[in-house]
Fold these 2 entries.
Entry 1:
Amino acid sequence: TTSNFTAAMTAAERDAYNAAFPNRVAIKHAHSQQNPERDWGALTLRAVDLALYLLNEQFSQVVNGQRLNSFKADNVLVIAAGVGNGGGAALAAGEQDTAGLIDGVVAAMPNIQMAVNNNVSVRRGSTTLTGTGRVLLDYMTLANQLQPCAALASAVAAAPGAALVDATRGAARCAALKAQGVLQASTTAAQADEALAQLQAQGWQPESNDLHASHAALSGAIALTYANAYGRFGVRDNLCGFSFAGVGSDFKPAALAGLPATYGSFSGLAPSGGIEIINNNAVGGALENSRSVSATSGVADYNADGARCLRNLFTATDANAARVATGINEVRRTGNLRGKPAVIVHGRADALHPPSFTSRPYFALNKAVEGATSKLVYAEVTNAQHFDAFLGDASLAGLDTRFVPMLRYFNNAMDAVYNHLRSGTPLPPSQVVRTTPRGGTAGSATAIAVANVPVINATPAAADQISFASGLATIPE
């Protein structure tokens, strides 16, 4: 009764589920049946209300037994800011803020999904993408299918973390995609090259090619968790034959040791904190997903059957796909920040939330919706990807020499918005920020210097400026 999250089921239903699927774990984001992303903006605004209340509780004077309401939205500077999902929440809050609680917004690499508007488009070089990007489940289920195969492509053979994708299982995924009609090539090498080319053709930037191996497990985990959330599926649904559990040395579901410690170490997204993704439909019985043998192929192919099922939840029209579509429509944003000063920063090489699906079309949508009242700045950073933590990961040695940290630009954007609100300093123009990789030895990059990570420029060169006109956002090469 004091649980932070308890799966919605009766005692009898729980007993029956535990008997059929022992040692399983329910995960709040996946199984709350609340579609939490729908409320990101509203909950961020509630956080501002709470902050103002606490400021008054701590610092306001008490007069005649009544505490004064000294700290209010009109005299407290509030910047809604976040990274990834937090960036999406900050933008959602900015859109939904009808009470003037928020003065400015900063979002880094936001997970943001937009209302459909095919009157806007984004062009980089010779490539133009029409509309407001792809929704998360679309691009995550696509990545989940293609990345285990694309990681074997000849062009990325030396990518950091390439060994994270097992060559035999990756080749089996390539063959499964061929059998499903997703790929046309006949050899593993050609299929892998085709899969990588598909990712790039679908909107992943060429600068992110070296990241697909390190992201392959992430895309599957995110696709599964968000499909559950959008469709409001419960733990008993075992969506697409998946579940979550601790595993033993044989990789079969086992009792999760140290559950209180898992509460502290779990990221909210399996695999993490000892919780693994389980393929209930594996040949020979339930097994940790990446090692399981698929019923269709009869080989270990990173569960191509499960990946196809998750993809169908976006592309199909059956009852489960309809449930998911309803949830996705609940999280689409309008692009209207109500004239608030805002800065979005995004790494060009981001392979998790590619800018072509998120920040670029959001910039275009905002400019189209707000017109001359828009105060949104978009800065796209070269040689930058989503996970700064990866730059110090020994298993991904080489990312440190190739990429610069994005946190630098989140802080830079915070400074820009703060200085604008506090001192009236003009916001910088939208632009591409040209960085210089550190170089050096993989795993031991040259010490970073200011020259590697120049700040967002108050007066960028014309060739670096991002522009918007007549429904088209133009991103310099």
Entry 2:
Amino acid sequence: MKKIWQPEELVEHWTLLPDELALLTHKNEPNRLGFALLLKFFQLEARFPLSSQEIPAIVVNYVAKIISVPPEKYREYDWQGRSIKYHRAQIRKFFGFREIKVKDAKELTEWLTEQALIYELKLENLLLAAVSRLRELKIEPPTQDRLERITRSAIHLFEERFFHQISSQLSATSKTEIEQLLQISKEDDIIANQDSTENDATATDDTDLESFSFSELKSDPGRIGVESFHKEIKKLETLRRLELPPDLFNHIPTKIIQIYKQRVAVEQPRDLRRHPEAIRYTLIAAFCYLRSQEITDNLVELIIQVVHRISARAEKRVDKELLNDFKKVTGKNNLLYQIASATLHQPEGVVKDVIFPVASEETLKNLVKEYKSTGNAYREKVHTVMRSSYGGHYRRILPLILNQLEFRSNNEIHRPVIGAIELLKKYADSKQRYYEGRRYYSLCF
């Protein structure tokens, strides 16, 4: 309960009504004050205070003034005797509440188990939900320790059912692949027997394996480049070999799956193997399910970064080539006017005799250079360098991406792009330079 109360809040929440004042008859001053405070506290919190200190002094003074009892009498109220038990029973009866029973605790556990997904398996949220549920049922909540035990039991029961539900949906092939993924590898032996420095030095030796070890599946893409694409593609192929059902976690919020993924992320394969089968299969399935999505996102992000890199390097290269030739020509508008005027004055004249006296040959050369370094010619040159960089190095990424990712769009505007991607997939291994597609796309890649 909060410690600071405003005057209007005291009036609203701590003022005793006539039917409540009637319950104070035939009680001495300490019991009258203690009973009144218990009554209003229970009305607010749907529980009784654990000690006298839980009720703020400002509240004690306000209630004491209402019932004309000195506030000091509150210290004489017995919190351990028979009177307070009788007072609690009176208050429960007045509000229509009852004490919690074993049957109620079991029903609450089952209810919390069903609500676990909604509250994201968070103990604090489920505790609040439990208190709210008991208040709705007009049942006095148990002690905080017992309520926590009930809530933790509900979380455990949910996980037990969840693990069996998910593992039962996995095929024999998926379970075999999961077991194979968790088998002790050279990297696991290194982790178990050497320090972290030695492990870092040898971890790179496993990148040439046909399938990644489970520990390597947790790693980031690394530096931008073709090698990063190969690593991410290899990870994705390893995960897809598990053949997880596409709808395995459709009914589970991503935040819940993320909780189990994080559990896997901090455990070594040898630790994961110690879990019972249902837990082991579910944890690995949750990790691989989300990791597959993350790696797909990584591949798209790598594509974007590679395009930016090609563009930036092309512009830098072209800028360097043009820097020495760049000459800025001032007064271009006036120069254009003079050239036009001279041309109109002698339309049949020779360029050398008509134009050069107005704009020298050197000035015109500088003007051409400036245009090439700032206009369409510049952009065309940058595009040419980008195509050269792509064709000479990054082009081998395209078949890898097309084989692993599926592109879709319901937008008619994007249908030509989807058609072009389908055509590229069809001829990915062909040495042809030009292709005629369903809509006669003329593509070169």
